[in-house]
Write a structure and sequence with these properties.
The chain is of the alpha/beta class. Helices cover 18% and strands 29% of the residues. A hairpin with a 4-residue loop joins strand 4 and strand 5.
Length: 198
């Protein structure tokens, strides 16, 4: 059995029917797990002697709204987790969909991998995914008074407010966006005979 086949066998043995989907493509393994199993699966991946996913490399949010030109039937918001086992030298990707699109919630993994703290704050800030049990879930990239979540597909490209310095008030102020949307149609003008004979 190869190193890679060993990983797949160990994942099936350790997680069993908690793996809702198993994708094996281009030498990479992706597990899809249900929201109610998310925290337990993380603990098994970290603690199981055959897996030892001791390092959380990355956690990011994903908004699948409009994905696949309307053919997508799974949930809108997901969290994707990238894990590494230094012990066994293999990687696993875990995807978990939030069951509620209006208020996406998943349990925090801070107790499993403390390094996930800022990654969860980023997913909260940019996608509005709430991580239950996170000790300090607040915005990390946008301003304190920022309204909305800018990586959501339905967030307007120009935003809701703009910021400028007001010399009379001697401070930065926010005001409604004054940018008027416009369609840019690129024009290409070429000289006669461009590209001919070259």
């Amino acid at each position: 059995m190869t190193h890679y086949e060993n990983l797949k066998a160990c994942l099936h043995e350790a997680l069993g029917d908690r793996i809702r989907e198993f994708h094996d493509r281009l030498g990479e393994v992706t597990l899809v797990v249900d929201q109610q199993d998310y925290l337990d699966v993380a603990k098994v991946l970290r603690d199981h002697a055959g897996l030892r996913m001791d390092t959380m490399i990355d956690l990011c949010g994903v908004d699948y709204q409009g994905y696949g030109n309307g053919t997508w039937t799974a949930g809108r918001f997901a969290v994707v987790l990238h894990l590494l086992s230094v012990t066994h030298n293999w990687r696993v990707r875990v995807r978990c969909f939030c069951s509620d699109e209006d208020f996406p919630v998943l349990p925090s993994l801070c107790e499993v991998w403390p390094a996930v703290n800022w990654f969860e704050r980023e997913a909260f800030d940019l996608f509005g995914i709430v991580f239950e049990g996170h000790a300090d879930l607040r915005r990390i990239l946008t301003d304190y008074g920022f309204v909305g979540h800018p990586f959501r597909k339905d967030f307007p490209v120009s935003g809701y407010v703009e910021m400028r310095y007001d010399p009379e008030q001697r401070r930065v102020i926010y005001q409604p966006v004054t940018i008027e949307p416009r369609d840019n149609v690129p024009r290409v003008i070429r000289e006669d005979g461009y590209g001919a004979g070259h």
